[in-house]
Structure formats: C-alpha cells, structure tokens
Design goal:
This protein has helices spanning 3-19, 65-74, 89-96, 145-159, 177-187, 218-225, 233-237, and strands at residues 24-29, 31-44, 51-64, 78-86, 102-110, 117-124, 131-138, 164-169, 194-199, 213-214. With 244 residues, it is an alpha/beta fold. The protein has one domain (22-199): UDP-N-acetylmuramoyl-L-alanine:D-glutamate ligase. Helix 4 crosses helix 5 (177-187).
Amino acid sequence: MDSGDAQQRVERSRAILARFPRLRVVVAGDLIADEFIYGEVERISREAPVLIVRYDSTEIVPGGAGNAASNVASLGAKVELVGVVGKDESAKRLTRALPPRTNTRGIVSAPGYVTPVKTRVLAGGVHSAKQQVVRIDRAGTAIDTRVQGAVETALVRAARGADAVILSDYGTGLITPALWQRVRAKLGARTPPIALADSRYALADFRGYWRRVLTPEFIRWMRKYNVRLLPRLHNLIWGNAQGF
C-alpha cells in the first residue's frame, strides 16, 4: 500500500467516524455485569495451595450487550439498549456503569430474574501487572415467555426508524433468530437498513439477510458447525447468507 492509498483510508475512516453523532443505534441482547476485583498478592495460604489476596478495589463495567452499547456510544452514536435485568443490586450497578449517551428505556426489569454477573479476581505485586487469578460466574435465571415478549415489544419500539441494530446473543434464549424474524415482520419497511448479529451458538440460524453483517466468534462457530463450511464464510460475513 502506497502513501496515497493509506491517506485515502485515513480520510475515509475520519468521514465514517464523523457520521456517528448523527446515528441512532439499537443494541439488543444479553446484559451481563462484568465485575473486576483488584488486589495484591500477599502470600500462599497455609490452609490450601491458594493465593491470599489483599483487597484493593472493585470495578463494574457493562458486559455482553452492554459492552457493545458502550463501544457504540464511545464512537458518538445515540444508543438505545434493549435487554432484561433483575430487580437486584447487580442490575443497578450495571445500569449505572452505562455511558451517558445510552437510552435504557428498553431494559426490562423482571421480578425473580437474577442479573448475570461475571466476577474476575485480578492480583499482582506492588510493581507488577495484575493478572486474572480466578473467574466466578453467577448465571442468570431462565427467561420466561412473558419477559421475552416484553423485550420483543421494546425492541420493536426502539428499532422503528433506527439507523442500525446490533443483536448480541450469548445463549440465554432471549435473542433468537425467531424473535428477530417476528420483529422484522412487525417493523416492515421501517426495519433498520443494517443489522449485525453476534451469536455464540446460533449463528447459522440468522439467515437470509441482505445488507446485514454476521460477526461470529470464529473458533466456537467453526467447532460447532464444522470447518468444512469455511469456504462459505466469506459470503456469510459480508451479508449474503442466501442458500447457507
């Protein structure tokens, strides 16, 4: 690539980024609270061969669809987040951690639902980088049809006239290909022109999109659907999933 091509790419990237403040993007999917506990390693315990970590601080950041929403907001776009949380402290901490440009009216607060939390303990010495020691997952409870219906309604309302939709499916059963097909049918001509699906387990079921991009976690996707599908991956990524 010569310097002229490189400069053109830079200018095109700047032009794309300059458009983000005018865009409204809907992010729908599984909301997760990512908790980071930081500490300093003191010694090995005498009770078991494990580290004794002196607590320093705790940080909560949005995970799952919340992470996608944060990334879009950091680019300057207006973000509407759709998902489900419980009526618990984790939900409050998660929503407080969202960027100011995030509209949370599409988040359904469901009684009895437990907000998923992934807790990572990071420890190190005074003059060394902290490394992850252990991760503790507190999985959310099952999502019933009533809650999924409320999320579907919220997604239809939020997506109407939006510039783009991002679907973030972590396998809880909240965001499914069937749900998105129903949403598209209700939106009709007002379906956003761009839809991106990040699905951990059901990527191949998001079919038939034009001007839509499917972004898999490549290793998990190929393990599940067999690497022999790799020659078709180019068409899938660039949005022509017809015949897949």
